[in-house]
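Please describe our next protein:
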Amino acid sequence: MTVEGQKKRKRKKRSRAASYQKKQKNLKLTPIDKHLKNLQLWLLSFSVLVVIVTVSILLTTSFGKMSGYSMLPLIEDGDVFTVNKDVQVKRFDIVYLTPPNKKTEKSIRRIIGMPGDELFYKNDELFINQEGKPERYLNDKKNQLVGGILTPDFSLASLSGQHKVPADSYFVMGDNRQSSADSRDYGFVGSNQIIGKVESKIFPFN
């Protein structure tokens, strides 16, 4: 190809490119196109947010089901709850756990003794580190008793031979004290056996 031919070819390419760019500049989005584009961006952002929230919930939340009558009247057999796995549990929290004597089962109990606590019951009253601790969640059951006590006297020493709750362990009890299998029977619950804190009941709906 001659030099003149090459120049003509280049001029044609430049002309086509300029024509294409001009056409692109002349293209304008209609109001409907702009609305659809904004809607697409919003849907994409919303979808990403939903994925992030869902993953976060799955990582920190599980579900627990009550089996038995140890937590009556607050929690009934068959009740289903959300369980927060990402929370530091404290005294009187209701927790979902694996009992030391039944490692294939799960149960719901209330934390009474924290690591390092000395505790005992005397005349139906809880004492932690020699200080009385009211258990208001038991008031209704105590008021229903006629000439009896809800929680018989005991101490950690009488149950386990230890005077304090060991490190990384908890002493748990059911609210239905007269019919509950708990730390009085199977001993302390390790922190690795506590799945999380029981929060909202999701079934039944009443």
About this structure: The first strand starts at residue 61 and ends at 65.
